[in-house]
Structure formats: structure tokens, C-alpha cells
Amino acid sequence: MARRYDPGRRDRIIDAAIRVVGARGIAELSHRSVAAEADVPLGSTTYHFASLDELLTAALRRSNENFAGAMRDGGALEDPESDLAGELARLLGWYLSGGHGRAELEYELYLAALRRPALRPVAAEWTDDTAALLSRRTDPATARALIALMDGICLQVLLTGGTYDEAYAREMLGRITG
Predict the structure, then answer these.
(1) Alpha-carbon torsion angle 42, 44, 48, 50, nearest 10
(2) Which of 17, 56, 69, 175 has its CA at a distance of 20 to 30 angstroms from the CA of residue 107?
(3) How far apart are CA 158 and CA 154, in angstroms?
(4) pLDDT in tens, 123-151
(5) CA separation for the pair 156, 152 (Å, rounded)
(6) Residue 63: is it exposed, middle or buried by C-beta count within 10 angstroms (0-12/13-18/19+)?
(7) Helix (H) or strand (E) segment spanning residue 169
């Protein structure tokens, strides 16, 4: 029997892995659960991703791309006259809006690197890529400080169930940007 050509299957598998992690957590991620979610044969998941770490790496990379895209599309990094702290605070508000599902999912993937060394290079890529974007408007050390503060604010909101305070974030980010 001829193999069916399906160029989008790998992407559908990654998207399905993100949905599984979002709905049930990383502990419930398996090739079988992803195959069922993607509506593909089990062999397709293992063909494209030999291990769960490979699948998680692809999912984390996709999540990183989503945030970086939002940062690029916001315009604050292109306009040297714009309020960088205000734009970053607005971006965090968007990121944490509409429930915390997306942010929780992305941080679960990001923090999985603590226990899964294979994910660490991708987590580091996110930091490096975000720092490079921010360095268009500030020096590299300040860019890293902004990332640390944004991570801290997001984690506090997610872990405490608190409400995101955009004015507070803008003020604190402004202290770093000077």
C-alpha cells in the first residue's frame, strides 16, 4: 500500500501535543494520547518524534515562536520613541488575558526543562531570542533584566491566582529601562 503524503501531519502532531499538555499536563503526554488528539495513527507520532523529549522540544519551540511573534508584531521594538515599558506591560496583559490557560501551558513546557535536560537548549533559545529582540531598544544586560522581571511577574500571577496589574508592571519595567 502506498504511503499517503500528508505534509501538515508533523505540525498537527505538535499542535495536538500542545493541546494534550494544556488540557491534562505534561505527565499525561504520550505518543498514544497525542496520536488520539491529532487523529493520526500511533506510528505517525513515533515516526516524526522518536521520543517524548523530541515532541516536547517541538511543542516548546512552537510556544516560544508564538510569544516572540507577538513581541515583534507589537511595534514597540521598532519605534525608538514608543514607551518600551508600557508596550511590554501591555504585551504581558495580552499574554495573561482570556484566562491563564495559554500562559500556564507555555510555562509548564518552559519549566519542564528543569527535569528534562533535552529541553534546556530550547528554553535558553527563548531567552536568547527575546533578549535579541529587546536589545534593539536597550543594552543586552537591561534586556536580560526585563526578561527576568517579566518572567517573575507572570509566574507570580500564575502561581498565586492573582490579577495582572498592568500599571504596576509598567512602573517596574520602567524602573529597569530607566
Answers:
(1) 30
(2) 175
(3) 6
(4) 898 899 899 999 999 999 999 999 999 99
(5) 6
(6) buried
(7) helix 166-177
Q: Which three three-digit cell numbers place residue 11?
A: 505540525
Q: Which cell goes with 88?
A: 511590554
The contacts of residue 13 (CB under 8 Å, 6+ apart) are: 34, 35, 38, 40, 44, 45, 48, 49, 55
Give DSSP secondary structure letters for 105-129. Answer: HHHHHHHGGGT-GGGHHHHHHHHHH
Counted residue by residue, the chain has a size of 178
Contacts of 178 (CB under 8 A, 6+ apart): 142
The pLDDT tens digits for 78-130 are 788 889 999 999 999 988 886 667 788 888 888 888 898 988 998 898 899 89
- Looking up cell 498565586 gives 160
Element (H, E) at 142: helix 140-160
Here the cell at position 76 is: 514597540
Does the pLDDT value for residue 2 go beyond 50? Answer: no
